[in-house]
Amino acid sequence: MNAALLWIAAAAALALVLGFLARGGRQMGLAQWTVAGRSFGAPLMFLLMAGEIYTTFTFLGGSGFAYGKGGPAYYILCYGTLAFVLSYFILPPIWRYAHDHSLYSQSEFFAARYRSRGLGVLVSVVGIVALVPYLVLQFKGLGIIVAIAGYGTVSAPAAVWIGAAILSLYVMVSGVRGSAWTAVAKDVLILGVVVFLGCYFPLHYYGGLGAMFTAIEAAKPGFAALPPHGESAWWFSSTVLLTALGFFMWPHAFGSIYAARSERIIRASAAVLPLYQLILLFAFFVGFAAILQVPGLAGPDVDLALFKLSVKSFDPWVVGIIGAAGVLTALVPGSMILITTATLLANTIYRALDRKADDARALFVAKLCVPAVALVAVGFTLAGGQTIVALLLLAYAFVTQLFPALILSLAAGDAPPRPATTAGAAAGIIAGIATVAALGLTHSSLATLFPALPAAVTEINAGTLALAVNFVVLFAVSGSAKLVAAARSRP
Amino acid sequence: MIHLVRALALVPFALMLVGPFFLNRVTPLVFGVPLLLAFLVASILLTAVILALIYRLDPANRDGPQ
Questions:
Q1: What is the pTM assigned to this prediction?
Q2: Residue A147 near residue A127, CB atoms below 8 Å
């Protein structure tokens, strides 16, 4: 075993120990396991809400996207920032309603607001469908880290299997509290590592940031801005909007709101989080530095940029520390995603089938679902060939479809949502998901479907089109249902 | 009054969704980074200021336990 693998194993062991300790002798009922008894104050809440900022997605995906695409990677800085602005206004009413009605999950929220168990099940299914690619990208990151830092001694598939086993064990032991404490360790470590690498590489290889970007501009003019076609300003703007709207539609992001002690804590976190976002800059710098130093990575291999450059530059033990940070960035969000998926399966889908199940039974089923979900994700990870960012954008196109029904229900306060009816909300969600799936499966974009449209329009993110379809169907179905009702009530 | 302050929340959206159409350039580098990136970073800093202002002035945050 080399020095790098030793550090990575230590990180995994640390995560497990923190998970065991976090349990702290508490009785683990369903409320304790999923929302930590709604007891989180500002610091822990802040970390839970920031969860996505330092995941494998930004660590490897962000640097890889900057390496492979250049300027379009900046979208990652923007969508989180706009999502936090939105969160200041939309999360507190969600928290209040969930708190007053003792809700645990996102699907329960939809089911309660629209007074429809069926809609709750639909929302769960959407959540599960979107969470799988999200979990796959964490496993993909784990595989990359362990395989590269192992200098060839551990195969990538073996690394994915090991990661999945640790993650499942960790989640089954500790639930959400484990996530929060490991999140503290992870954020400190990743902060140090990313800032160090983002400063060191440009300085070491180019003599400074300005010199680095000047060299890149000379080699690839315009690469560090948006290209005129493809990932253009139109793509950028629509992608930022789509993903900002989707940021808190994630079942686990929704679930993390519920763990807050008060709504004021949520507002305070929202106000500080945009600054936290800036650490991403350093991940971009790493990707940009790699362009001229480890050229030639293409396709899904762009995600290797950070580690290829690290292996080229450092001794194994330094690579090990970087890898340890990377392992934690995959484990923490991975555990959140697993808990959420398992709770969704147990609480809505299982309970829809077995109406008499009590909380203890639902918790038992949730824990059984953990390894099952992990297995499915491992299967997709070993089969797939997408980049990390491509996986996340696909997942976002799915999950953002919950936004129209949510925002209309919030706008109505505690009254029944208007003008959305339950049927309208369900029809809109289904139409939006179907649009995303159809575009994805046929590999079409707006450009191939409507070649006559001006280029600017065809570059708009396809998920935005699905969102528009969703809104139109929602209003059409809700409106016609009301017309029918009005016609029936007429004498 | 608070409605006006809350309306400031629209500013980050305008900057980040519209700005890239006009400032999509690498040069001149600003503090060593491409112009577009520098603009987006400045927008994020301004967003933090705006959110802090809204939080401070929002009556909903005044009373009650932390």
A1: 0.87
A2: no
